[in-house]
Structures
1.
Amino acid sequence: MDVLLEMKGIEKIYPNGVVANQGVDFSVAPGEIHALVGENGAGKTTLMKILFGLEQPEGGTITYKGKPLHIASPHVAIANGIGMVHQHFMLVPSLSIAENVVLGLEPKRGLSFDWKTAVSQTEELAARYNLPVNPTARVQDIPVGMRQKVEILKALMRGAELLVLDEPTAVLTPQETTELFAALKKLKSQGHTIIFISHKLREVKEISDRVTVMRAGRLIGVTDTATATERDISRMMVGRDVVLHVDKPPTTPGDAVLRVEGVRYVADTGKEVVKGVSFEVRAGEVLGIAGVEGNGQRELVEILTGLRKPSAGRVIAAGKNVTGKDCRAVRQAGVGHIPEDRMTHGVAGLGTIEENLIADRYDSKALNPRFLLSLKSVSELGKKLVKEFDIRTQSPKTPVKMLSGGNIQKVVVAREFSANPKLIVANQPTRGVDVGATEFIHKKLLENCAEGAGVLLISADLNEVMSLSHRLAVMYGGEIVAVFPNADEVTEEELGLYMLGVKRMKLAAGSEAS
Amino acid sequence: MKKEHVFEVVRSLVAILLAMLLGFIVTYLVSKQPGEAFQSFLTGPFTSPRRFGNLIEAAIPLTFTGLAVSMAFQAAQFNIGAEGQFFFGATAATIVGITVPAPGWLHPILALAVGGVAGAFVGWIPGVLKARWGASELVSSLMLNYVFFRVGMYLINYHYRDTTAGAMVSLPLKETSWLTQFLPPTRIHYGIFVAILAVIFTYLFLYRSRWGYALRMTGLNLPFANYSGINTTSVITYSQVISGVVAGIGGAVEMLGIYHRFQWLALPGYGFDGIIVAILARNNPLGIPLAALFLAYLRTGADIMARTTDVSAEMITVIQAVMILLVTAQAFLAGWKHRIVVKEAKQSV
Ligand SMILES: Nc1ncnc2c1ncn2[C@@H]1O[C@H](COP(=O)(O)OP(=O)(O)OP(=O)(O)O)[C@@H](O)[C@H]1O
Ligand SMILES: [Mg+2]
């Protein structure tokens, strides 16, 4: 078989001593879509950063188009036709799409920026690759799916023949994913080669020709996608069988543990981002809120958990009015919160696992039997939770920052679930988390629910909200636009239409989702 | 010891060595007797009990201000105000020492307590300004240094000045308030035990108490601390207040132990030196006394050198500056560290 890129014996050791790649062999054939999968912390992003010149390996060789290539920086990668779209976008929000696409390659007329040519170049490129965008729109005003396209166009503009996409679908709706895949297929038909990283095996099955699996910094194997099932791939990734679909137990919900009444939030900019939202979560049920990011879910969650004060409306958690109260009061009412951005709110990265686990109970009687904190109790609690929640670490005294994304998430989950909450607000609880850890978090979530906690689940991952929720609501433009009393009776496509604002239900005011 | 710590210690030692080397080069350039000058700088503090005593005496106030600054640093707060807290603590202790009649065992305790309260008050102001209105504690604590310097000078000059003395000094403190100098011919005094207690207290507070835990988490990640239900507003305030108590007691100890009369005409600079000490000790309370001793050693040595040779004591500022630059520069020796990490990681796989 032809080989476009061959990475051989790649070794990467980070300054903190983490061996992220050891002896990894990775090769890609011209014109294929090659999926790269593996658990959190397997070293996928690291390998791709080496390919793109963002990290220098301690060992190994790269052969590209038959010649050895030393990739000292992204400039070298770009000059050789290698492009990368990062997990987190790197666009300039205040500039237009066209300006972002030609950034650094600006067409000039005389000394000034040639805006017309920039726009026409962008249009031409967009038409050629079937990635429609409006070149004059500002990046800050366009949805994530569109930003993704801009990133891809930007790479193509620089002559990328080999395109690396690091978890491109994590934040997309099904419709957007379908569009992206169509564009990728078109790119492929025009001779481009694509490396595609994802934790969603269904997508890997759908789009890729071959799959490379990594685990713990090593190469596990390469297979043709057609001959492997999702189960095969996940077994290679995790080293055991993974339950990909959870069975949620039927439930007879009890009393409301959360009542939200007409909550509004007006941002500093004067824009109303939450427009009178009302709903209830009852004990023993999971209420899912689906929606594309940026439709007011973040603000709503922050209001419910005490991080933000509503402009109007009431929040009753576990029978206590916590409207406008701080996080402490909300927690004391019995609310647990898995925050969307684990590194900002979920943990103190430089703190140890133990220290992070006691954050919500550091002043409890149990940990302070006498005047001082009992280091013994803290360390016992740490050991117990590390074991129970399967946090992979050498010791509970390791700084959280050194864990992989999935394990950091488990630290958060362990803390929030072990406090016996009456209500759990879980915002994107498995974002960027691998299949094994996702399965685990889902299991724990449903366990808590079965024990009588109410769960409010917010997720951009439709699979997740649909399979876990008993009831479903859709949020669009700061409002709840649809409610499905039985989550099992909805199709993904239909949900997608509500999420994109194409359809909306007529809901009686005040009785929404209750 | 953890590998990470070994690197830090080695990095500090190399930084110190390089700084000394540079100091030597500078001495060589400016002095007619560089060898002698540097020798008296390095060995001077150990040539007589008195000089060694000077070293220990100098380390005591540095320990207090170092602790105060490191406590604030751990809450990710700057405490440039340790200077003013120290000064005002000394002022308050002076007043208690002059005016309050008390038996010998109670008098110093009273003076220290009042000094601590005075320091706390000075620390409380920037804490509240920050917590309530988000005013930068950096700016406000710096400005307060000069405010409380003036307030202190006013109190001493207009109310407790010794008009019979030829210089601008306060009335003498009652002997009952003195911290005994117990190791003649040195002036090493009981304040050294107070300093040791302060180290232990700060350590226990930061690492073994729920308040210290809340303080450290607030310092590591404020949004996280907030989310966890820690009242970060009050943490920020009390971190500055307790930091002020420690610095204030430091000022009081210095007054009761060494001076016995208030005679400063300018800010003595211990608070600013506390920042150096805290940086050298990486904010670890247990490292503070060592860093304080080291800085005191440099200072005492420089002093002796200036008195016995033609090199001025300012040379020490060169060494200090280079040292701090190297200790705080993350990239310093990072390449060397990385090579060792890589080697070890390879061996262990
Ligand atoms: N800059 C860094 N410094 C130190 N360690 C790092 C750094 N970046 C990544 N690591 C560590 O290297 C390992 C591999 O990380 P990498 O980001 O390549 O994983 P990944 O396979 O992309 O995982 P994910 O699916 O979570 O994105 C992890 O253990 C991670 O903690
Ligand atoms: Mg990654």
2.
Amino acid sequence: MLEQNQTAPLEEVMQQIAEHKGCGTSSEGGKASCGSSSAPEDMAPEVWEKVKNHPCYSEEAHHHYARMHVAVAPACNIQCNYCNRKYDCANESRPGVVSEKLTPEQASKKVLAVASTIPQMTVLGIAGPGDPLANPEKTFKTFELIYKAAPDIKLCLSTNGLALPDHVETIKSFNVDHVTITINMVDPEVGQHIYPWIFWKHKRVTGIEAARILTERQMLGLEMLTAAGILCKVNSVMIPGINDKHLVEVNRAVKSRGAFLHNIMPLISAPEHGTVFGLNGQRGPTAQELKALQDSCEGEMNMMRHCRQCRADAVGLLGEDRSAEFTTEKIMEMDVQYDIEKRRAYQEIVEQDRQEKVAAKNAELLELEEEYSEVKILVAVATKGSGRINEHFGHAQEFQIYEVGTGGSKFVGHRRVDLYCQGGYGEEDTLPTVIRAINDCVAVFVAKIGGCPKDELKAAGIDPVDKYAHEFIEQSAVRYFKEYLGRIKSGEIVHVDRGDADIRQGAYIAA
Amino acid sequence: MAYKIISSQCTACSACEPECPNVAIYEKDGTFVINPKKCTECIGYFDDAQCVAVCPVDNTCVIDTSYPRYQAA
Ligand code: SF4
Ligand code: SF4
């Protein structure tokens, strides 16, 4: 596998990236967009240096680098209303999936096997199911094994924060790159509707008291991480009617304590998940509500917008899960040779491609410099990664959404959709689902598209564009926008704000 | 009496295992079980049975009535 990777053309290999389906950021304010190689204005240079190649923190890096998760820590110390602990992932797109529980030894071997096969795999995360810090022995044993064998792999972990203050020192000693805390509230009044109980000092604590302890521990943990110089990101689940407005306050509270990124994710909720929220009919936010909240927090802080809410043990590309290649059985038989040099050489090629992409977009933007217009549009992009339009419309399991205006382009989110073309061609009722998911977009960029869906998209007012097949996304988006402005000026079209889109949500990491 | 785990409900999350003060809980055939000979219902250690308090699935760690009530020595 490695040899193949070394000789295959970059484009092909890029498609094999185990592009992690997790989280990341866009840069702020629409000024510096994702392709930027300079730090966003409100981020300290040393922080930027740490995160710019991190697939979870930079959407742009996300096209080139990948991360994986291992499930070694199944126990949890709190209960959340959006989680059903029977499954590792309350909001898994296929309900009832349980990821394979690994011992620290199995997990570290798996990580080394994947990293040797997929040179872009640079980040290892321990997240759900369960809380890594409710299982400190297993979590830290895994870190220790990987740290010794593959010091170039960055380590990260996600936690609900309850046990965090007890472990900051150990986290520091393993050189853990960054920690994610899931913080859904800073007010126990709000928290009591999200957390039915916590397990604290040998007791089950419920109600406001539980939420009060949790928020105190989360804030203390965050402050301690900041003091110890460990990067900290905050995840929040947006639950309409419960914490949606409150999250602006959460945003302020975590920023003032040193969190460098805030990732607001939509609640994903359906009765078949068997969660409290699923069963009581609590809805998740629409794409538009989510974007509006992220926009209102953006002035305050960098927002993450490309979180795909992956399942915890995913190893795969967009729309593809390679975890079957790395089952415990197969891994235990593998003879893993970890070769740092090969990985480094590979990553250099990636770096070059990346520079090229940034240059291409900047060149395109130069021509726009003179223009100013209020008009902003959204475009949906079918991509398998590496920053290019390289996916067939019918194969896309998700669309990346870019916002374009005279200020440039920026990544603003994902829309997951059912596989529209499953093996055969065009299943009839899935196309409307796709259209609903992206109907706030003016256009959809694809590598290829059939005649029939093309007509239906047009009828829905979405322009199907295949002329940028295999080009860079952002460069194409800016180019398309120029044409769009031209068409408005010539009176060919009238710009209208497009309505709200529904999102078909995918899996989500319980953390 | 001792506690027992209803195995059909146990998610094998392992949360109870390290909490038991008597090391009475262990994994067996994909779920967790309690050794009734070791379980003291947490008497002498904690006010609440730890396995009950930490288990995410309600009514999974329950009293096993086939054993007499535990008597503190
Ligand atoms: S009741 Fe207490 S002693 Fe008995 S199994 Fe549960 S945790 Fe252990
Ligand atoms: S805490 Fe409950 S679900 Fe988890 S292993 Fe113990 S008995 Fe099973």
